[in-house]
Every structure is written in structure tokens, then in C-alpha cells.
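Justification of computing resources. Each target in the renewal requires a structure prediction run like the one illustrated here; the chain below, 404 residues long, is used simply to show the kind of job we budget for.
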Amino acid sequence: MPTRWILLLATASLLVAGALAACGGEERAPLKIGVLLVNSETQTDTARDRLRAFKLAIKHVNEAGGVFGQPVEIAEGDTLNPAEEARRLIEEEGVHAIVGPNSSADSLLVLEVAVPAGVLVISPSASSPLLTTYEDRDLFFRTVLSDVAQGPALAQLTRERGFENVGVIYRDDAWGRGLVDAFRGAWTGGIVAVSSPAELGESYLDLIEESAREGAQALVLLTFWPEGEVILREALDSGLYDQFLFGDALRVADIAEAVGGGRLAGMYGTVSGPSHDNPTTILWDEAFRDEYGRGTEATYVKETYDATIAIALAAEAAGATEGTAIRDALRGIASAPGEQVPPGAQGIARGLTIIGDGGEVDYEGGSTSMDWDEHGDLRRGYIGIWRFTADGTIEDVDVIAYER
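Resulting C-alpha cells:
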């Protein structure tokens, strides 16, 4: 290339750079969001639907022009090794925020890596009250209610089912300990609570027998699915229990089929989730169905979408991708004042346009209002009451509004 063309190109580059600097418009790197939701060993339908909701949120943002006028990038991690994957996402992939992980115990592991790095974490399903007081430099938020709401609702449901003396088997991790403490704090009857190791065991008969030693009328089961299936089989086969109540982690239709014979028909549980009458929830359901050709009854799927959208809107409002900058803008994009914007492609496009024009938005999520307190906990939401039916499906029975 002739020297004069080289000089002309160099001059043009300097002029463009100078113009950008003069306008305060230095080019920004794209927002990159990591996601930690699917475990390569278990590959549950619930986790896959949460990942689908994450990708739907990214699609809606990018169809609207992205953040800073650039498509949002993503990097997927495996919850099989949450701390290692969080480190990889941050140090190798360069993510600015993480959606996930699913469990409270995994969230604590991820935060040990993310907080020192200044990376924001929003979990759609980590509900343990223990996370409220974790020293996270305000870098941990969640789009699910803390179990300070679910525990009392489960205790009330148990009383309404006519039980005065119960056994409880709870998972010995951050989620299980937090939920059983919240349940026990609101329970006024007899109780024998027994912890179950987080690692899957071959038999839980000794724990079942211990929980029933004071003549329990029902077993309140606060475990994950794999151990829950074993416990239910052994409790029924031994004749120690035929009545059960469940925490949110066992709202899985497949567990009724696995236990078999309609033996869980009429058994109730609680879950933090949306009110299906909400206009924004209806909009979200339509958007998911349009994208995937079906709806979903899996837990914390809408909450995953909301977490992703909140990060994108907050980054746009902050004009920056640093975790602390996104954090500082989060509460502002999800509370008054501001124009209310719903989920879905049109709502997200409207929200990004308002922010780009210097305005304020109040994002109303597909699950509930994203109104966070000083700990990153939701101030309001809903606790759903559900039950297993005779044909092994799950029926939503009632919704209790929660606000503090």
C-alpha cells in the first residue's frame, strides 16, 4: 500500500477516535452474562426450562438492539462444579454478571468467587434466609422470595390440613436449614426435625424412624428430588407415614410417577412463585409458548427470565458493564418512579428505548414485581399452594400474597 494511503487511513482513524472522545462516546465492550443453571449429570427438565427462559430473555434484548446498541453475549457454565465454573466464567470468559445458580448452597460457593471479583450474581431460586446476611458487598440479588415467606406459609398449610404433630426431614444445607428454621419459627405443634445429608444415600429409614418417634401424623419433607423419592418410598413401605407435605424443591410431577400407584394424590406443598392472574405473568406465558411451542409448569423459570432482563436493563441504565455499576442501577430499573414495562419482546424493547432516551423504567417481571430491599431480597411476591392429583400431575390450588 502506498505511503500516502497509510497516512490517510491513520489520520482518519485518529479523527474518528477524537470525535468519539469529544462526544464522551468511547466504544464499550458488549455486556456478557454468564449462566449457571444446568448440571451435566442430572440434566433435569426444570433446569433446561430455566435455561430456555434465560435464552428467551437474551433474544428479546438483542432483538431490541441489545445493550449499548450491541448484542448481549452469553457464556454457559455447569453447576456440577459451581465454584470452578464461576471462576472460569469470570476469569476466562470475562462475564460481567451471572444468572444462577439454582441452589442456596451453590450460591454461597459462587459468591466466594464472584464477590472478590466484583461480579454481580442474581439467582432465580436460591431462597435461603442465610443468604440475606452474607457479606456480599451488595452483589447478590434474587428474583425468588426468601424462605422467611415460605416457611410460615408451609406451617399454616400444615395446620389447615389438620395436623398438630409432625416429623420433618430436611436437607442439611443452606436451603434446608433456612427453610426448616422458618417453618419451625411459625409452627405451634409437636415437631421432630431430622437433618438429611446433602449427598444421596441408599436408605433413609433410620431418619424416617427418628422423625416419627413422637407419633407424628405427617412428614414434612424438605429435600431435593433424588433423596425425596427414596424417603417417600421407604416411609410408605414401612407404614410409618401415609401423609406428607412438601417444600418447593419437590414440586416435580415425575416424583409422583416414580413413587407410583397414586400414593401421593392429595398431598400438598408450597412454592414461591407468580400469581397466574397477573397480566405480566400471562404475557410471559404467551412469549414462552410462542418461542418453544408449549408452556411450562417448572419452578423458577419466569424468575430466570426476570433476572436476565434486570441485568440488561440495569447495564443500559448504568452505561457500564462493571458488576458494581449494574448493581447500583438495579433497584432503580425495577421500582417507581418510572414507566412500567412488562416482559416480552415489545415490553423489553420499550424499556430499552426509554432508558436510551434518558428516561426511567419500572420493570414488572413475569413472576412478580422486582422491588428489592437493601439486602437484594424481594419485598413482595407470592407463595403458591399446590397438590399432587390422582393421575400424578400437579394442581395449583391457591396463591398467598406476601409483602413486608
